[in-house]
Amino acid sequence: MLMWPIGVASGNSTVDVVAGTRSRPGVLSALRLVASRMTRQIGMPHAFVRARSLSCSPAPAVPRSLSSLAIVAMPASSPRTASWAQLTAHAIAPAGGAPTQPAGGARAVKPDTFTTLEALQTAMRAEARNVRDFASNRCTSLASIVTTSVAPNTFRAFPLRRLGHHPSKVYRDWTTSWVTSEWPRFSTITTPEMMRTWMVESARALESHWNRITGNEQPIGVGRAAKLLALTAKHLLWHASLSNQDRARLLSFLDVPLDKYTLQGIRLLLPEARIPRSASMGFVRTMEQYHSIQNGIRALASQLSTPDAPLSPIHYEVAAWNAAHPTVPAVQPRCNACTVGSACYR
């Protein structure tokens, strides 16, 4: 088993955060996510990744899921070889919680469901800083933004390899071309209705392209297409050509990426949407469903907003994600092509 420590530094203080998984592909990306989160947990403003291998023996069974990483802290001077017991003895406890479980005993992350408007409002308000930090990122490359916008593990839901295609490549190639041609239109959107129209047209275009590439053997479905594009639309706010005023305007118009976290998180507060306990991004099969759920989330955000604490649907997305990931929320790595601000939450 290989372990990749992350160095998190501030001034003269250094701490290593160690994450382990069974396979190397995607590990460095996952470590960047962990590094960003750890800077928040231990109050350090910046993070860097130091990718050195660390042998661990005996090696426990480690789930392949990147959401089940074992996270431990060790002194920067720790030896390159250590026992699993030594590693887990230094487990970092999240604020107000128990130490992180070793990966071998971790459970799958389950969505959290908001049961009252008060709880939802509190959670959304608590994410205001995360939303502001996310919008502070800057990038000059649309291609890099598209690549960064959807985490590699998301594409595991699309088994295209047997058809000779890599789902990440199919999505990134098409979306980069699409947003490049659509950028003048996207960047000048001035109402939520215009954003919704752009999202729907984009999702239908992606669905048509995807199904043509796969010969309709692995249809993506409009709900999944819209979820991927909603993630990308959110990251388009990083583009350096946008002014701060443009970003603030577009951010308030964004649709929520609908997956198991955002769907199940809102199901009790939107009973008319009839969202089941097991809902995931494949639950949304028609544009009527999509409109109904997105409109419901926007109405709740408007209802819970106050003059001193305005809320938008994107505040709900962050709240739903972080409520389901109280120990190590997923955060996206920074854009590799540019120097940007703080990393994003997902």
Describe the structure.
The protein is of the alpha+beta class. The protein has 2 domains: 2-105, no CATH class; 117-324, no CATH class. The protein is 43% helix and 8% strand. The chain has 12 helices and 5 strands. The chain has a 5-stranded mixed beta sheet. The longest helix has 22 residues, at 192-213. The chain is globular and about 50 Å long. It starts with a strand and ends in a 22-residue tail after the last helix.
Please give a handful of descriptors for the protein shown.
single chain, 346 residues, alpha+beta, 2 domains, five-stranded mixed sheet, 12 helices, 43% helix, globular, disordered N terminus
Summary?
This protein is of the alpha+beta class.
Largest sheet: 5 strands, mixed
Number of domains: 2
Instruction: Please tally the helical runs, counting DSSP H or I stretches of 4 or more residues.
Output: 12
Instruction: State the total count of DSSP E strands.
Output: 5
Distance between the termini: 27 Å
Q: Radius of gyration in whole Å, from Cα?
A: 20 Å
Structural class: alpha+beta
How are the strands ordered across the major sheet? 4-2-1-3-5
Proportion of beta-strand residues: 5-15%
Silhouette: globular
Order of secondary-structure elements:
EEHEEEHHHHHHHHHHH
What's the SSE blueprint?
Layout: E1 2-10, E2 13-20, H1 27-41, E3 54-56, E4 70-75, E5 81-82, H2 84-88, H3 117-126, H4 128-135, H5 142-149, H6 167-186, H7 192-213, H8 222-235, H9 244-253, H10 260-266, H11 287-304, H12 313-324
Parallel strand pairs: 3-5
Antiparallel strand pairs: 1-2, 1-3, 2-4
Helix pairs in contact: 3-12, 5-6, 5-8, 6-7, 7-8, 10-12
